[in-house]
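Quick one:
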Amino acid sequence: MKRQTMIHLEAITQVGNNKKRRATTIIIVAVMIPVLLGFAALTIDVGAMYSVRADLQISADAAAMAAVSAYARDPMLQIRLGYGGDGELAATISNGTAEANRVAATNNSFGAHSTSINPADISFGWIDATSSTSAIDTSVVSENFNAVQVTVRRSASSNNGALSLFFAPIFGRLSKDITATAVAILDDRFSGFNTASGVSAHHSHRHSFGFGARSVLVCWR
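Output:
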């Protein structure tokens, strides 16, 4: 009788321990789920942000390069020769803006089939090509214009829309605004290059280099 009682008590104790283990496991899982979702958000959403940022930078670079080509057309050449006026400057800006939008439309980013540029995000002016922090100056005389700055956005206020996030909405963050800026400079002081080894010069050359969040592209003619 005593032995049966002891076995019964052991069984009750084992059942109680199993219930405690299950309760502990449920608590641990409940605590770890937000942590795991947080890591998923960090991995997937942040990866998507970097991917879109790279896509936008490509679009901004290409759009700026396309826009600055307007400085090599007849209206700007007339301005630099001294007999162009407001009409020629307007034509230059119009040509550059159209080229920027045309090229940007062929580049997409994650979740967007094409890229559009807000008119206010295209600036024509002068910039110091030797400075990594020089801002574009739109107040200089038009004959000194040498640069175009283009900013491409994925935001709620742009036609491209903000980047929709995957796991972050669980924590109350539905989307993320991302921007990329590029400056293209046309430097027509050079007509070619001549190396010490005697290799023939290139008549056109493109060099690109990055400064923080801004890309600067220099075209030499």
